[in-house]
Amino acid sequence: MKRAWRFATQAVHAGSGPDVHSGAVMMPIYQSSTFAQSEPGIPRSYEYGRVSNPTRTALEQNLAALEGATHGIAFASGLAAADAILKCLRPGDHVLCSNDLYGGSYRLLRSVYGPLGIRSSFVDMRDVDRVGRAIGPNTKLFWLETPGNPLLHVIDIAATAQVAKRHGAHVVVDNTFATPFLQRPLELGADLVLHSTTKYVGGHSDVIGGAICTNNAQWETRLRFQVKCAGAVPGPMDCFLLLRGAKTLHVRMERHCANARHLAAFLGQHPKVDRVYYPGLASHPGYEVAKHQMSDFGGMIAFTLMAATLEDTLRVLAGCEVFTLAESLGGVESLIGHPATMTHASIPREERIAAGLGDNVLRLSVGLEDVRDLENDLAAALATA
Questions:
Q1: Which residues are catalytic?
Q2: Where in the chain is the domain with CATH 3.40.640.10?
Q3: pLDDT tier at 1 (50, 70, 90 boundaries)?
Q4: CA-to-CA distance for 228 and 72, rounded, in angstroms?
Q5: 3-state SS class at 131
Q6: Residue 361 main-chain phi, psi, to 5 deg
Q7: β-pairing, 192-195 with 170-174?
Q8: Residue 91: other Cβ atoms inside 10 A
Q9: Confidence at residue 95, expressed as pLDDT on a 0 to 100 scale
């Protein structure tokens, strides 16, 4: 019987033992579009690169192991993974979403699937009673981000999943911010775990990818069908880079979390900062839930400037030298962004403001640099506000 492995050992070894052909310790890049067949229609193991590829299989098995899942399915991007889930719905179906949601997910739901007859609504899922009131007769999916993007709302996955199950709905949890090192939604009742592997899994801002992990065999069949039919798949080189990144996920996340805790405390004491959104602060409304369902609090921080105009906010952005003004997150380098004009610009202003996302909100992806340099960088930038 195979011995049980802990997270760090799985990260390094799951899905990628020595190559059976060459003995290569690292999974090779199988850069092939097609594979030889034993007989017509009977492949030896792989058939065609759109359907599957050995390097992709290694990545999928690795991610499934990290999430505690039976199945992992890799996609060309996080949105391609989300799109594959939504393609399994039909006109008239309803998706109930958290209102602290990535702007690209919002755009996909409203602008692509809305005109096709798939309805979506957005509620504050931190309030389980409000979630219950928002369910309709055709609600098929609960779509959660926790911690959310960008205000780091924390949703009780187990409690929300119980509500969903009572109404026959399935639960999708976007686990991009937390990663499986900090949070394992399937163990809390989720049916599907979604990742933009571009972010922390890849970890080096050099590859685009997405993944879905599940223990549900029916969902696995549906999603594999979408892979075969729609073809939004990562190439072998992408899979190689993502697998390489996954091997150090646990080490990087420890540093991301440590740096973020330090900067959240620093920002919380700064006279030009009005509010800090970080689930590791005892003042955060979701602190107790996060402490229960996460092993640490992540590397993402949002904060608002004190009585700042948009011009003040833009000056702070321009004043950073170590933090790079850029979209995305989860890389080794620290990034700063302005959600209202960047990642969440696709959300109508009135909806953004109602959700608490004003023009004075800044989002940090805290990297692996020396935290003293990061603190000094923010101090100098805030002095310009």
A1: 50, 102, 174, 199
A2: 8-246
A3: low
A4: 15
A5: helix
A6: -90, 130
A7: parallel
A8: 10
A9: 98
Residue 244 contacts by C-beta under 8 Å, 6 or more apart in sequence? 26
Domain with CATH 3.90.1150.10 in the chain: 250-382
Tokens standing for 83?
């799109």
Please write the tens of the pLDDT for every residue from 125-160. Answer: 999 999 999 999 999 999 999 999 999 999 999 999
- The DSSP letter of residue 185 is G
Taking the C-alpha atoms of residue 157 and residue 189, their distance in angstroms, rounded to an integer, is 7
Give 293-341 pLDDT, tens digit per residue. Answer: 999 999 999 999 997 788 899 999 999 999 999 999 999 999 999 999 9
Distance CA 303, CA 265 (A): 12
Check residue 365 and give left, alpha or beta (phi > 0: left; psi -120 to 50: alpha): beta
> Which residue is it, tokens 């959660």?
144
Topology of the domain covering 250-382:
Aspartate Aminotransferase, domain 1 (3.90.1150)
CATH topology of domain 8-246: Aspartate Aminotransferase; domain 2 (3.40.640)
Burial pattern 293-324, b for ≥16 Cβ within 10 A else e, equals bbebbbbbbbbbbeebeeebbbbbbebbebbe
Q: What is the pTM of this model?
A: 0.95
Residue 273, number of CB atoms within 10 A of its CB = 19
In order, the DSSP letters of 52-93 are --HHHHHHHHHHHHHHT-SEEEEESSHHHHHHHHHTT--TT-
Expressed in angstroms, the distance from the first to the final Cα of the chain is 61
Q: What is the dihedral of CA 217, 219, 224, 230, to 10 degrees?
A: 170
What residues contact 254, with CB distance under 8 A and at least 6 apart?
Answer: 296
Q: Which residues pair with 120 in a beta bridge?
A: 95
**Residue at token pair 């689930």:** 279
Which residues are registered as beta bridge partners of 303?
Answer: 276, 362
Residue 307 backbone phi and psi in degrees, to 5: 45, 45
Residue 73 and residue 47 in contact, taking contact as beta carbons nearer than 8 Å: no
Q: To which H or E segment does residue 210 belong?
A: strand 210-214
